[in-house]
Amino acid sequence: MALEHPGTLRGRIVTLEPLSLDHLRGLQEAARDGELWKLWYTSVPEPAGMAAEIRRRLELQERGSMIPFAARRNDTGAIIGMTTFMNIDAATPRVEIGSTWNGASAHGSGTNPESKLLLLDHAFTVWGCPAVEFRTDFHNHQSRAAIARLGAKQDGILRSHLRRPAGYVRDTVVFSIIASEWPGVRIGLERRVAAHLPDGEDPGRLG
């Protein structure tokens, strides 16, 4: 059993495209934007390792455990990063949104909240997930704050959970949004996206 691939998810600020090796050059440039691979608490690949990372995600897609996307800004057409549905439990169904990174210049642009809006809307509205999960490194305070701003609630901390390439075993902070919380979370995300739209543009709902 597998969840049907949603295809391209289009928003007003960002478009999520099914990941392919055609995105390689754009993702290499996005990784250079801020040299995010140098942050020890993240898992952003270096440009030289980007092709291998794309292939890894596509292999997980073949196994049914991940649906990966490349994120593209609508205003410039530039690829800015990656995100995924991962740890897919198709029977429940339940998914995690994760393995996400965006180039530094996209931070604060509204692309991240709209990416989450697109993914969460599909998970709850189309797939009927009772819950969607988020996980991050205990030391990644920026990511933890961003997840909390989405409206997700912290479920707990998995201590000594995952060995990282930097040479330590991380504590993983687990958050989730459940279906009954989604209408309120959606309103909050729509307002955050609307704040980045040009004056006069209709900030109406997706679809």
Automatic annotation (TrEMBL):
<dbReference type="Pfam" id="PF13302">
    <property type="entry name" value="Acetyltransf_3"/>
</dbReference>
<dbReference type="GO" id="GO:0016747">
    <property type="term" value="F:acyltransferase activity, transferring groups other than amino-acyl groups"/>
</dbReference>
<dbReference type="InterPro" id="IPR000182">
    <property type="entry name" value="GNAT_dom"/>
</dbReference>
<dbReference type="InterPro" id="IPR016181">
    <property type="entry name" value="Acyl_CoA_acyltransferase"/>
</dbReference>
<protein>
    <submittedName>
        <fullName>GNAT family N-acetyltransferase</fullName>
    </submittedName>
</protein>
<feature type="domain" description="N-acetyltransferase">
    <location>
        <begin position="14"/>
        <end position="153"/>
    </location>
</feature>
